[in-house]
Amino acid sequence: MKFPLFLKICPPKAAVMYTFITKSELFCFVSVILFFLDFCSTIDVKAQREKYIPDYSVYHNYSMLHREITQIVKRNPNFMRIEKEYESRNKVSQLVLHITNFTGSFNTQISKYTENSRLKILFSYGVHAREFLPTESLLYLLKNLTKGLTFPHGSFEEQFSRYVLSHIDIYIISVANPDGRLYIESTNNYCWRGTETGVDLDRNFDWEYGRKGSSSDPKDEEYRGLHKFSEPESLAFTDLTEKIKFDLFMSFHSGIKHIYIPFADTKSKKIGRQVDNLADMLDLAMELSHCTKYTYKYGQAYKLNDYTADGTIFDFMAGVKKIPFSYTVELWGQNHKGTSCFDLFNPPNEDLKEVLETIHPLYVQLFRYMIDWKSSQVRHIQTEDFVSNATSEDKNTVKARVK
């Protein structure tokens, strides 16, 4: 005879029928139910049987990432620096990079507008520990961008690298959550998402923090932490955006092919809140959605997803920091079945190179679009300044040209 599950675990005395349960047996039954409810709700951060795991002759572990990125920076001192003050709770470097032309030797505009005309971008990678692919795409980007500088003068590769570096200040949080990454490497739990203490950095920011699109349960993968900005890892984001007025923030993830526009939070979904420059953000998202062999769905996060997310980084950047363009980009995903995790977020080892090559044009298109956008903003400011300081005759000339 097959017993009900709870009877297998807490068998009643032989003389007691199923319909008559003692207090101790009832307590045991309730405990089992609560256990299974807890297990089901947190299964995604517990180690699972994986279909495949990373081959570290193909993927990079944290120490390899640190070594390669450091070497790239050392080879290109005129274009790259590491901002060493940004570290995790365990004092592990987040490898925050500043990339631009520090010499100014090939700036295309030398004027009082030069500094303001440079596009300022902030990228983040590795917020979720189990998502290896985004950081691999960063490494691929860094290698390609710097390799172009070694090509013959006047070649397309050399011209494009110099064009990007002369027009953009790029700040990159290469591994936002190094403690979480190291936790995966030491435990082989490829479902682990948060920091070493289990906090999801993407629920820890001061935008609708603490609502139902996050969790107060430390065992839940969307655990938001004890309070907003409770994690030292958040300092890199808040400090950089306090010092620098960025034009674009982009947080890279994996698991699906989506481009998310703010907002993702529960209240925004309820009231239909939108960012001020929604049309511009949709336009860029559309450009990015079809610039690779992949097709990315794009739109407001609370419309694309069947869930809400409170306390996210990209919502904070849009809603609090007022960065004109703020996105979360999910770079890769495929049809997934089962409870395994690594294959949900990361391609097979043998496919990684092809996936990185396919993704790369997204960066190229992003740089081109945003440089053009920034140039148009600068021209508008220059025109306004000229008109405000011009004589009546000059103003009439400008108006005639506009007509």
From TrEMBL:
GO CC field: extracellular space
Peptidase M14 domain: residues covered: 58-355
Pfam families attached to this UniProt entry: Peptidase_M14 (PF00246)
InterPro entries: At5g42320_M14_CPD, Peptidase_M14
Cofactor(s) of this protein: Zn(2+)
GO molecular function: metallocarboxypeptidase activity; zinc ion binding
Lineage: superkingdom: Eukaryota
Enzyme active site: 330 (proton donor/acceptor)
Family: Belongs to the peptidase M14 family.
Protein name: Peptidase M14 domain-containing protein
